[in-house]
Amino acid sequence: MQTLSKLKFLHRLILLTLFFSSYFSVKVFAQETKDSLKYFPLMLHREFDTSLTNDSLFLLKIAQDTWNFFDNSTYGSTGLIVDNVGIENGFAANYTSITNIGLYILCVISAEELSIIKRNEALAKISATFNSLEKLEKYNGFFFNWYDLTKMKRSGEFISAVDAAWLYSSLAVLKAKYPVEFGDRCESLMKDADFSWLYNKEVNAFNLGYDTNKNSFSPYNYQLLCSEARIAFYYSVYRGFIEPVNWYFLQRTLPLSFEQEQQPDGDWKQYDSLNYFEGYYNYKNIKVIPSWGGSMFEYLMPGILFDELRAAPYGMGLNNSNLVKIHIDYALNDLGYDIWGMSPCSIPTGGYEEYGVDKIGVSKDGYKSGVVTPHASFLALNYFPHEVIDNIKIMINQYKIYGEYGLYDSVDPLNGNTGYNYLALDQAMILVSITNYLKDGCLTNLFMNLNNMDKMISILSDEKIFQ
User: Fold this and answer.
1) Is the pLDDT reported for residue 15 higher than 80?
2) What is the pLDDT of residue 140?
3) Region 341-357: what's the mean pLDDT?
4) Domains in the chain, start-ordered, CATH in brackets?
5) Residue 19 pLDDT exceeds 50
6) Are 91 and 34 spatial neighbours (Cβ–Cβ below 8 Å)?
7) Is there a contact between 405 and 427 (Cβ–Cβ < 8 Å)?
8) What is the per-residue pLDDT for 10?
9) Dihedral, CA of residue 110, residue 114, residue 119 and residue 125, to nearest 10
């Protein structure tokens, strides 16, 4: 069992792996990468009259502007999206991650679903991405986590389980959406990546990843249930690498003997022959299964492909719903903010920070409260649409947070300062969330109709938490 110090180190590694997009004002890739883009925004702030549109048109307008980031920010002719651009400082990253690549594909599909682009344009964009993707170096069937776009070479030695899961899950959706055009190419990449290689059967959880320089797996694992790494679990069930019942090996809280933010409530339960502790925390009498730091993406990011509210309304769906209630209450009542939604993001003063509600994170240090990031709110669109839309309208009306590519990455409600950055990962969460909401879960439907997903849905629907 991991110690708390190891768990803390693990989660920070996760964030560095998934969110390496702390924007860096390094001159070496500022002008060169900017010149490789189709367009770089000239306008820092754009007015947005929120009173002129109904909710659907309001969301569609944001989706269109957000899509412009993806349309204009692929590197040259590679079809690979840059990790981030900083509008105020005038720079663009010269690297990308495989999570970015996968979510870019989902965004192209989203743009067609929303009739922003036509089918032939979507196919052309994805084909360009594939032409580059198929040339990138791999290891044991897996792509490396980071690639230098100027050299089209890997820029590290690490194979990340969660990032790989986002790429291959996106390919699975692509295969289902365009089976004739991309089915064989998707399957060719997916069949080479055996996720059972990354699954640690001793602890029944995914390793963080594999270091090809050291020729060894990470000593840390994704054992907490409420983690963005659930996408690796869902994808692996689809491909038959693990059994759905392994869901009950994931830890709801840290073990009772571990020092953690709260002493968990709950009971020991049994599923088939498996005994597990159905533990939870309390926040103002709201029950919730904790994450590491209490941020929104840890709970809600997997939902852009697997609709946990629909699959498990009395399980993960209920837990996620309670999480959103807690974030709203904490921001509006405890902090006195007029807006809500905290997750790791770039910040107005420069750099990248982790934010959340520390009372629902197992870490004793916790994530601090601070800036608000729009993507966190959009992830909750499926749960509380009216509250999310009202929240975003207040952001736009009260703060200078809207630019040519839609909502910037963060704003500090205490002083109104905006982080004038666009991160590919965060923008993708916004666009895909809007698309699922406006188009009746079109992307989640594609993913949840894959092989074995009916078994996964059955397992999740059987779990009745807080009872």
Assistant:
1) no
2) 97
3) 94
4) 4-462 (1.50.10.140)
5) no
6) yes
7) yes
8) 53
9) -40
Structure tokens at 288: 């919730």
CA pair distance 396, 24, nearest whole angstrom: 26
What confidence tens digit (pLDDT) does each residue in 157-199 have?
A: 999 999 999 999 999 999 999 999 999 999 999 999 999 999 9
pLDDT at 9 over 60: no
Contact 125, 450 (CB under 8 A): no
pLDDT of residue 53: 74
Average pLDDT of the residues of the chain? 93
Question: What does the pLDDT average to over 374-396?
Answer: 98
> Would you place residue 279 in the very low, low, confident or very high pLDDT band (cuts 50, 70, 90)?
very high
Contact 30, 82 (CB under 8 A): no
Cα dist. 259→4, 68, 295, 438 in Å? 8, 46, 20, 43
Q: Residue 138 forms beta bridges with which residues?
A: 143
**Dist CA 268 CA 276 (whole Å):** 6
Calpha distance 220→217 (Å, rounded): 8
Q: What does the alpha-carbon distance between residue 96 and residue 313 come to, in Å, rounded to a whole number?
A: 36
Which residue from 367, 375, 368, 366 is spatially nearest to 395, judged by alpha carbons? 375
CA distance 4 to 1: 10
CB 87: neighbour CB atoms within 10 A?
Answer: 22
CA-nearest of 155, 135, 140 to 17 is 155
Higher model confidence: residue 33 or residue 435?
435
Distance in angstroms (rounded) separating the CA atoms of residues 360 and 342: 13
pLDDT band at 28 (very low <50, low <70, confident <90, very high): very low
Cα angle 231, 330, 326 (rounded to 5 degrees) comes to 45
φ, ψ dihedrals at 14, nearest 5°: -60, -50
Given this model, what pLDDT does residue 22 score? Answer: 37
Q: What is the pLDDT of residue 31?
A: 59
- Strand duo 95-97 + 91-92: pairing: unpaired
